[in-house]
Amino acid sequence: MHVDIVDLRQFYHSMLGRMAEQSIAVALSSLWARLPQERLVGIGYAVPFLDRFRADTERTFAFMPAGQGAVNWPVGEPSATALVFDEELPLPDASIDRVLMVHSLEFAENPRETLKEIWRVLAPGGRLVIVVPNRRGVWARMEHTPFGSGRPYSRGQLTALLRETNFTPGASAEALFFPPSKIRAVLKLRRSFERLGRIFWPAFSGVIVVEAQKRLYQGLPVAARASRRVFAPVLAPQGVPTARVAVQRKA
């Protein structure tokens, strides 16, 4: 089950959330410095991090899963947000250069199908970065943050999943070495925890950040897959088709 959009937004507006955002942003910047004139899509709740990249991109979109809900983004500008199903993205083949997944893969109903869909929309040589809770970390065990929900991953599990779905795992980073405490005295020591954690206990980070590249030299098996989604029209006028038929018959 996805974390609700209201809870996600509330977390990132809190002091603990802002600290977590800064820690993850440092890890992301070590993998992606700038994205000049590239097309970027954030999937899940990636808006705190998309703001850091979109100034250089050609265009940036925020795709939010239907089970999570969506908010308007960017604030005060024309919306670049879309409510989507992560297995059926509303994009043409090979149309996106970069994809950033945050608060996404751990909630996916079928992670393999989700990654195959991302493979479809990525351009040749396109890159994907996934941020997921670390199975060994403390953050995955604390339910008062969004990282304590969903399915956490180990580095080996994430690497194997990427290879199964035709991605080549590349550089990686870690973040959230400080404890997920709301006590101000603990949060003030965040920088020290982060610095020491990268040196002494990197395997116990709160999240794992992995970059992967779309692989082209191996074929994907083709299988017919019927959509599990049922789209029902909302506020559709009733009886209109019948009325039109009656008019045609009289004519």
Count every beta strand, where a strand is a DSSP E run of 2 or more residues.
7
Provide the spatial order of strands within the biggest beta sheet.
3-2-1-4-5-7-6
Structural class: alpha/beta
- The CATH homologous superfamily is termed Vaccinia Virus protein VP39
| Residue share in β-strands | 15-25%
CATH topology: Rossmann fold
- Indicate the CATH architecture: 3-Layer(aba) Sandwich
Helix content range of the residues, please?
25-40%
**Form type:** globular
Give the overall average pLDDT: 88
In DSSP terms (H or I, runs of 4 or more residues), the helix count works out at: 8
Task: Explain the overall architecture.
This is Methyltransferase. Keywords: Methyltransferase, Transferase. InterPro entries: Methyltransf_11, SAM-dependent_MTases_sf. The structure is a single chain. The chain has 251 residues and is an alpha/beta fold. It has a single domain, classed as 3-Layer(aba) Sandwich (Rossmann fold). It is built from 8 helices and 7 strands, in the order ααβαβββαβαβααβα. The protein has helices at residues 5-13, 15-31, 47-53, 111-121, 155-164, 184-187, 190-200, 240-250, and strands at residues 39-44, 59-65, 81-84, 96-102, 122-133, 167-175, 207-214. A 7-stranded mixed beta sheet has the order 3-2-1-4-5-7-6, sandwiched between helices. α1 (5-13) crosses α2 (15-31). The protein is globular and about 50 Å long. 38% of the residues are buried. Residues 231-251 have low confidence and may be disordered.
